[in-house]
């Protein structure tokens, strides 16, 4: 298994896991860009958003709802937070296993860089 986040999900690589179930894993980003910076991934390997099929609609919905729940549990729901999927080179995607960034705890600039 060569994919970094497949290996995190399989616990072959240590991560600071904040949530897991049979379909998703969420863990703290190793290089946080905000006081809260969690990545929510599916256990199933999907390389980019371009590779999503209709069969993943439920899974992506679960990822987004889980990100919102993690933000709420961290106390960020009312003040706000950001969720981001980067796709391919122009967006700076570096790990080719889809992941939802959940960022909060500071004022986030817009438009993003
Ligand atoms: P992206 O640029 O959207 O592909 O985001 C990849 C993210 O994964 C970056 O924010 C990295 O800091 C993060 N990252 C890379 N390796 C690890 C790891 N082993 N554990 C946790 N986060 C990681
Ligand atoms: Zn993978």
Could you explain how this protein is built, in words?
There is one protein chain. With 113 residues, this protein is of the alpha+beta class. It is 24% helix and 22% strand. It contains 3 helices and 5 strands. It has helices at 4-9, 57-73, 88-91, and strands spanning 17-20, 24-28, 36-42, 81-84, 100-104. It has a 5-stranded antiparallel β-sheet with strand order 1-2-3-5-4, covered by helices on one side. A hairpin with a 3-residue loop joins strand 1 and strand 2. It is globular and about 35 Å long. The chain binds adenosine monophosphate and zinc ion. Adenosine monophosphate binds next to loops. Zinc ion binds at residues 3, 5-6, 45, 97.
List the helices and strands and how they pair.
Layout lengths: L3 H6 L7 E4 L3 E5 L7 E7 L14 H17 L7 E4 L3 H4 L8 E5 L9
Antiparallel strand pairs: 1-2, 2-3, 3-5, 4-5
The structure holds adenosine monophosphate and zinc ion.
* Terminal-residue CA separation: 33 Å
| Helix fraction bin | 10-25%
Question: In which order are the strands of the major sheet placed?
Answer: 1-2-3-5-4
Strand content: 15-25%
In this structure, how is the largest beta sheet organized? Answer: 5 strands, antiparallel
Based on secondary structure, the structural category is alpha+beta
User: Number of DSSP strands?
Assistant: 5
Please tell me how large the radius of gyration is.
14 Å
> What ions, cofactors and ligands are bound?
adenosine monophosphate, zinc ion
Mean pLDDT across all residues, rounded? 97
The topology string of helices and strands comes to: HEEEHEHE
**What gross morphology would you assign?**
globular
Which regions contain 5 or more consecutive residues with pLDDT less than 50? none
Number of helices: 3
